[in-house]
Design a protein that fits this description.
Elements (H helix, E strand, L loop, with lengths): L3 H21 L4 H10 L4 H25 L5 H20 L6 H21 L14 H20 L4 H10 L5 H25 L5 H25 L1 H21 L2
Helix pairs in contact: 1-2, 1-9, 2-3, 3-8, 3-9, 4-6, 4-8, 5-7, 5-10, 6-7, 6-8, 7-8
Length: 251
């Protein structure tokens, strides 16, 4: 695919699907990263360029959630603080992990998340306002530090880690998604800054991806608020299952 207009159209289309999935569940980067590499970008540049789409996607999604009255700012900011530190460290990691091993590990994690989401052990203890006790605060800080490290390093599938980290404390999936996009928005900034410092971002392709991601994310926020927790749980479960099987059986 040598034609730039066709590249742009492909990125906008796939970016829309990716943005929609990222807001409702996660894993959208598992679609966009292979596409960026297929278009000729080195894996490191594709990983960096993908963050442009993620950043703009979450800017629009945060605004859409806020306009619809779903804006758990206190919880999101609390979770964002350790994630920022983790994201910066993750983006600077130079560890060369085997790609096949990484895919298998991610697939196992996703299957575990699928089981957790389907069982939904906190369904009878769900709450709108989460009281951050010392114990719960320590768990959240530690969880989101490592989520930030992972998100800064690779990004793909980070939503699948954030969802159980919040559902464990009884946060419903509508608010979980709102917190998720705020946290990802905030920790994407230092990660993207690191990639920019090393001149690894392809701006023309990144902007095209951002257009698709933003549109898909904006639509997904309205669907999330309208459909509610149980519908989102079905979407999350199906998305996790599909991506887990793809990772497990990919050549």
């Amino acid at each position: 695919m040598d034609s730039f207009p066709l590249q742009v159209l492909a990125l906008i289309a796939v970016g829309f699907v990716s943005g929609f999935l990222n807001i409702l569940a996660g894993g959208g980067s598992l679609l966009t990263l292979p596409l960026l590499i297929f278009l000729g970008l080195p894996a490191t540049v594709a990983n960096a360029t993908n963050r442009v789409g993620v950043l703009f996607q979450n800017v629009f999604a945060v605004d859409a959630f806020r306009r619809r009255g779903i804006f758990p700012a206190r919880l999101a900011l609390f979770c964002s603080l350790p994630a920022i530190v983790g994201s910066f460290l993750g983006a600077r990691l130079a560890v060369d992990i085997d790609e096949v091993l990484f895919q298998r590990l991610l697939a196992v994690i996703m299957i575990g998340i699928l089981v957790f989401t389907l069982v939904d052990p906190m369904k009878n203890r769900r709450r709108e306002d989460l009281v951050i006790t010392p114990w719960r605060g320590a768990v959240l800080l530690l969880s989101f530090f490592f989520i930030g490290v992972y998100g800064g390093f690779i990004q793909a599938g980070v939503g699948f880690l954030i969802i159980p980290a919040l559902m464990l404390h009884g946060v419903d999936l509508v608010r979980t998604n709102a917190v998720k996009i705020i946290v990802v928005l905030i920790f994407t900034i230092p990660a993207l800054a690191v990639f920019l410092w090393h001149d690894q971002v392809n701006w023309p392709l990144g902007i095209a991806l951002a257009i698709g991601n933003s549109a898909g994310g904006w639509v997904a926020t309205h669907v999330a608020v309208k459909k509610g927790h149980d519908w989102i749980k079905r979407v999350v479960s199906l998305t996790v299952l599909v991506f887990a099987l793809k990772l497990l059986f990919a050549p």
